[in-house]
Amino acid sequence: MTQLPLTLVTGAGRGIGAAIAMRLARAGAPVICAARSLEACTEVADAIVADGGHAYPAHLDVTDPDNIRAGLVDALGDARAHGPILWLVNNAGIAETAPFLRHGRASGVDIYDKHMRVNFHGARRMIEEFAPAMLEAKRGRIVNIASSAGLQGYPYAAAYVASKHALVGYSRSAARELAKSGVTLNLVCPHYVESPMTDGTVTRIVEKTAKTPEETRAFLAAQNPGGTLISPEEVAEVVWRFASGQENGVIAELLGGKGRVPDAETVRFYEA
Question: How many C-beta atoms lie closer than 10 Å to residue 101's C-beta?
Fold first, then answer.
């Protein structure tokens, strides 16, 4: 198995992040699986090691600037033989819903600020931490997991949509600055994915409507251009394409469809 650069995947304890970590590890990348739940990341890392790969769990809170480096101390120490982190996948994210005029009024929490801290500033801080080493090495790969919510609006999701638009806009600008540096930055923007985040959306809709979980899941799938929910493995395949390729400043919009390796019918690529 070819040894690829040391890779850091945030939000790697479940769902899309876990699928990405496993896919890159199968390709030969040593992977730091980072998230707020060390237990979940340990389970993912153990599964990768059992499959013959190299993986290191890490507790990481992307909203805490002091924790970004401190939370990785043990993992970085264990992974030191693999060199610096040259591949970074920013997947950590949250999604909560509420009418756009009522965000925070009921709970006292500013949900706009909460989403921006995780979905935008979290990714930005990770890039600021690890991109300098990539630029020094004149090689590196950054993949930001955004959402179709970074390309369009959705009702009752203004905070989430705003944070993902911020991430997309930032990434578009950063990719242009990175051009010809040897470091690439690309975006993955899936529509609804079969993931724990979507499970949470289903639960909230069921609580507020007369729909059953099955009806709600079918409704969300029907919102995807391809008519089906996207699998985490499909997202992971696109991340692998960006990590292993030379493209820079590209958006991959995953549409849903046939539930297979993404192709021209299920994913749309265009310049960011």
Answer: 7
List the end-to-end C-alpha distance of the chain, in Å, as a whole number.
Answer: 33
Contact 32, 5 (CB under 8 A): no
Domain ranges of the chain: 6-191+233-246
Q: From 153, 154, 129, 155, select the one nearest 142 (Cα to Cα).
A: 129
Cβ-based neighbour number of residue 156 at 10 Å: 17
Dihedral angle sign, alpha carbons of residues 77, 79, 83, 87: negative
- Which of 17-26, 73-82, 126-135 has the weakest average pLDDT? 73-82
Structural domain 6-191+233-246, CATH architecture: 3-Layer(aba) Sandwich (3.40)
Looking at the whole model, is its pTM more than 0.85? yes
Q: Which residue in 56, 160, 170, 192 is the catalytic one? A: 160
Separate counts of helices (H) and strands (E) for the chain: 10, 8
Q: Is 112 a catalytic residue?
A: no
